[in-house]
Amino acid sequence: MHGWWAVSYVVLWILVVGLALLCLALARQVGTLHLRLGPRGALEIDQEGPPLGEVPEALDLADLDGRPVSIGGAGASQLVLFVSPDCPVCRDVLPSLPAAARAGGLSPVVVADLQPGETSDLLDRVRAPVAPAPFALDRYGVPGTPFAVVFDEMGVVRAKGTVNNLEQLEGLVDTAKRRRAELAVTN
Predict the structure, then answer these.
(1) Is 89 helix (H, G, I), strand (E, B) or coil?
(2) Whole domain around residue 17: which residue ranges?
(3) Is 121 part of any domain?
(4) Is the distance from CB of 71 to CB of 80 less than 8 angstroms?
(5) Rounded-to-integer distance, Cα 117 and Cα 137, Å
(6) Which residues, at least 6 apart from 101, have a Cβ–Cβ distance to it below 8 Å?
(7) What are the beta bridge partners of residue 71?
(8) What tens digit of pLDDT does each residue of 112-139 get?
(9) At a CB cut-off of 8 Å and minimum separation 6, what does 116 contact?
(10) Are strands 78-83 and 147-151 parallel, antiparallel or unpaired?
(11) What CATH number is attached to the domain comprising 86?
(12) Consecutive H or E run containing 80
């Protein structure tokens, strides 16, 4: 290999090394963009769900075992998750409800789009009171499931939104804590 062939092999190897370095740089940029975009927070739209900063009508319901469950109103701060039995995303979000509520010092409550007396395998392993109350979704203006609402101890809506994973649920709880802290500072 002399002359022309030797030069072409050298040029080809230089191009291969250059392309490899370019691929590494692009992979690094994609990773940087992925980290920058990260998980998005809960989808909080003003016209959906109960109005922020207001006290919607409290609901007195019964859980699947017939025990009383209150939604909203004065009392313990609550993280209420509205779910439907045929919602695959609800199946993913439900197990994280107790942990997210505990992290925010909230009482977890599940409101299911079921008629009283109906059951669903979705709700079998939920570690929170489950109230079958399809009318509650309409009463609170819930656009779809899974939808979470954080009530403070006075029954004021501090955060709300559609959630699709644990990070969004935790973000909703953190938003409620931040808003509560901002309110305490201004008063």
Answers:
(1) helix
(2) 1-38
(3) yes
(4) yes
(5) 17
(6) 79, 107, 108, 128, 173
(7) 59
(8) 888 766 667 677 778 888 888 888 888 9
(9) 62, 132, 133
(10) antiparallel
(11) 3.40.30.10
(12) strand 78-83
Residue 26: CB atoms within 10 A of its CB come to 10
Q: What is the pLDDT of residue 22?
A: 94
Cite the DSSP H helix spans in the chain: 4-37, 88-93, 97-104, 134-139, 166-186
Asked which of 1-5, 28-32, 174-178 is least confident by mean pLDDT, the reply is 1-5
Report whether 76 contacts 148 (CB < 8 A).
no
User: Residues near 168 by Cβ (< 8 Å), separated by ≥ 6?
Assistant: 39, 40, 41, 42, 161
Residue with tokens 């509650």: 136
Per-residue pLDDT for 39 more than 60? no
Q: How many domains does the chain have?
A: 2
What the block records as the tokens of 150 is: 């954080």
Tell me: do 67 and 34 sit in the same domain: no
Does pTM top 0.70 for this prediction? yes
CA 16 to chain centre: 45
